[in-house]
Design a protein that fits this description.
This protein has helices at 3-19, 39-49, 92-107, 132-135, 142-163, 186-189, 206-214, 225-228, 233-244, 251-261, 318-328, 340-353, 358-367, 373-376, 391-398, 412-422, 428-461; strands at 27-28, 54-62, 65-74, 79-84, 112-120, 136-140, 248-249, 265-273, 289-298, 304-310, 334-337, 368-370, 380-381. The protein is of the alpha/beta class. It folds into three domains: 3-162, no CATH class; 175-183 and 197-243, no CATH class; 247-462, Nucleotidyltransferase, domain 5 (2-Layer Sandwich). The chain is globular and about 80 Å long.
Length: 462
C-alpha cells in the first residue's frame, strides 16, 4: 500500500479509537478477527442478545451488503449510530457512506432512530489532556440518511447485477474514474490510454480532461488551436513543449532572476508532520509541526556545505528545530526554498510560538527567494515536466541522475509517516536505519535544488 494511503488509514484508526471514549465501556465485535470477517456478524448478534449497550465495529449483512458501524449505542430507549471520520468537515461522500450503513443496519432488523457523523473540530486547541467533547463535533444526519435510504439500496442492487455479469460492461473512462475516489480497477480500463492522453494534462480538472478525451482527442498534441487557447498557462506550455519536443525558455527573465539572487546562496527544505490528534500543548488538529530540515550552502567559490537536522522523535520538535534552523541560515545571503509560501507559513507559525526569536525569523523571511518562480512564471519548461511545477516532476526532468525511486523514502508523506512511527519504535537498529533514511531523503531535496539552480544558471548564460 502506498505510504500516503497507509498514513490516511492509520490516522483514521487513531481517530476512531479515540472517538470510542465518547461512549466508553463498549465491546469491539471484531476483536481478534480479520478485517471485514463475517464472523463479526455472528459476534454482533451474540452481543445484542447479551444486552450489550455499546458495540464498536458492529457488523451487519442485509441483501448481501456487509457494513461495520463504528459505534452502535443503545441509550436506554433507542438505538443510535455514530460514523467516525478523521476530517474537519462532513462531505457529501461522508453522508452517503453513513446513510448506506444506516440503511443496511435498519434492514438487518435494528430499528436505529438516529444517525450521526463524528468528525474533528478544526478550531480545537489542546490544553492539557484531550477534551473529547471539544475535540469532536457530532452532526446529526438522520434526516439525510432517511432521504437517501431507498436510493442507496436501489443503487446497491444495480451494482450487484453488474457484478453478476459474465464480463465487465463497456463503460467509457473519464472523470468518473477518479470520483469520489480513484478506482482500483483504473489500471485495467486504462491500459490502452496513451502517455499523451488529455488525462495527462496538468492544471485542468478531471472533468475537463474527460471532455477533451470524449471529444476524440486521444493525444493532447493534436488539440486544435482554439482548445489550446482556452487552457491555463502551464497546461499550454505542456502542450507546446510536447509538440515541439524541446525546452521552452525565456533567457532574459532567467538571467534577471539569477543575477538578483547573488553569488552565495542557502538552499533549504523543511519537513513537517501533521497529527490529526494534537500531541503538544496549544496545538490544533493537523497543525504543521516541523521536525526536520536540510540546508545546502553554495559558496561564491562553488563549494557546498551541508547540514541536516532531525528532531528527536516523541518530544515537541519546534524549540530544537527553530534554534538549529536559525543557526544553519545565519548570514545575509539569499535563502532559496522550493515553493517559498510553504516555508514562510511554517516560519510564521514558529514566530508566533517563539516571540523571543521574532527578529531573527523576520530576517530570514526577508532573505527568502523562491526557486519555483522560474517554473511557475513559465520561464523554463521541458516536455518531461508534463505541465507540473512540483519538485517531484521538475527534478527528474532537469536532473535525471537524482532519483527518489532509488532511496527508501520517496516523498514527504512517506517521510512524515516514518517519523511519526519512530516514537513507538523500540528496535534501536530499525530506528537508526529509519533516521538515516530520513536524512537521505531530506538531503536529496536540497541537493536537487542546488542542481536545478545550476541547470537554470547554465541555460540562462549559454
Amino acid at each position: 500500500m502506498p505510504p500516503e494511503r497507509l498514513a490516511i488509514l492509520r490516522r483514521g484508526n487513531d481517530v476512531g479509537f479515540l472517538a470510542r471514549k465518547l461512549f466508553p465501556g463498549g465491546t469491539d465485535a471484531t476483536a481478534g478477527m480479520s478485517p471485514r470477517s463475517m464472523d463479526a456478524v455472528v459476534r454482533t448478534q451474540e452481543l445484542l442478545a447479551a444486552g450489550v449497550r455499546v458495540i464498536y465495529e458492529a457488523a451487519f449483512v442485509y441483501k448481501e451488503i456487509l457494513v461495520m458501524a463504528d459505534i452502535l449505542v443503545h441509550d436506554g430507549n433507542d438505538w443510535m449510530m455514530y460514523e467516525v471520520k478523521s476530517g474537519l468537515r462532513v462531505s457529501p461522500t461522508n453522508i452517503s457512506d453513513a446513510a448506506l450503513q444506516f440503511a443496511v443496519v435498519r434492514g438487518a432488523g435494528i430499528d436505529v432512530k438516529k444517525m450521526h457523523i463524528v468528525h474533528i473540530d478544526g478550531y480545537y486547541k489542546r490544553r492539557g489532556d484531550i477534551n473529547l467533547q471539544q475535540f469532536f463535533k457530532i452532526v446529526d444526519i438522520t434526516e439525510e440518511a432517511f432521504a437517501l435510504e431507498a436510493q442507496l439500496m436501489r443503487s446497491a442492487e444495480e451494482q450487484k447485477l453488474v457484478l453478476g455479469l459474465p464480463q465487465a460492461p463497456e463503460v467509457k473512462i473519464g472523470a468518473r474514474c477518479y470520483s469520489p475516489y480513484e478506482c482500483d480497477f483504473r489500471g485495467q480500463c486504462w491500459k490502452n490510454v496513451g502517455e499523451k492522453s488529455p488525462f495527462q494534462l496538468g492544471g485542468i480538472s478531471r472533468a475537463e480532461q474527460g471532455r477533451l478525451f470524449e471529444a476524440g482527442f486521444s493525444d493532447f498534441r493534436n488539440l486544435p488551436a482554439f482548445e489550446i487557447a482556452e487552457l491555463p498557462k502551464m497546461t499550454t506550455l505542456q502542450v507546446k513543449t510536447a509538440v515541439a519536443d524541446k525546452v521552452h525558455m525565456d533567457k532574459e527573465s532567467l538571467r534577471s532572476y539569477i543575477e538578483k539572487l547573488g553569488k552565495e546562496l542557502i538552499f533549504v527544505d523543511i519537513e513537517c508532520f501533521q497529527p490529526a490528534i494534537p500531541k503538544y500543548e496549544g496545538t490544533s488538529p493537523f497543525q504543521q509541526m516541523p521536525f526536520s530540515f536540510s540546508a545546502h550552502k553554495l559558496k561564491e567559490n562553488g563549494e557546498l556545505e551541508h547540514y541536516v537536522f532531525i528532531a528527536e522523535p516523541g518530544a515537541d520538535p519546534r524549540k530544537e528545530f527553530i534554534v538549529e534552523y536559525l543557526r544553519a541560515t545565519e548570514g545575509s545571503c539569499k535563502i532559496l526554498a522550493y515553493d517559498v509560501s510553504a516555508e514562510n507559513l511554517i516560519l510564521k507559525l514558529l514566530r508566533k510560538h517563539f516571540p523571543e526569536h521574532a527578529a531573527e525569523i523576520d530576517q530570514r523571511h526577508e532573505r527568502m527567494a523562491d526557486l519555483m518562480k522560474p517554473f511557475s512564471e513559465g520561464w523554463y519548461h521541458t516536455p518531461q515536466m508534463m505541465g507540473s511545477i512540483s519538485l517531484k516532476y521538475v527534478l527528474p526532468a532537469l536532473v535525471p541522475d537524482l532519483d527518489y525511486n532509488k532511496i527508501a523514502i520517496r516523498n514527504g508523506s512517506h517521510a512524515m509517516t516514518v517519523y511519526e512511527g519512530l516514537e513507538k519504535e523500540t528496535d534501536i537498529f530499525a530506528r537508526a536505519e529509519k533516521m538515516d533514511a530520513l536524512r537521505e531523503y531530506s538531503t536529496l531535496d536540497t541537493l536537487g535544488m542546488v542542481r536545478i539552480y545550476e541547470v537554470l544558471r547554465m541555460a540562462a548564460y549559454l
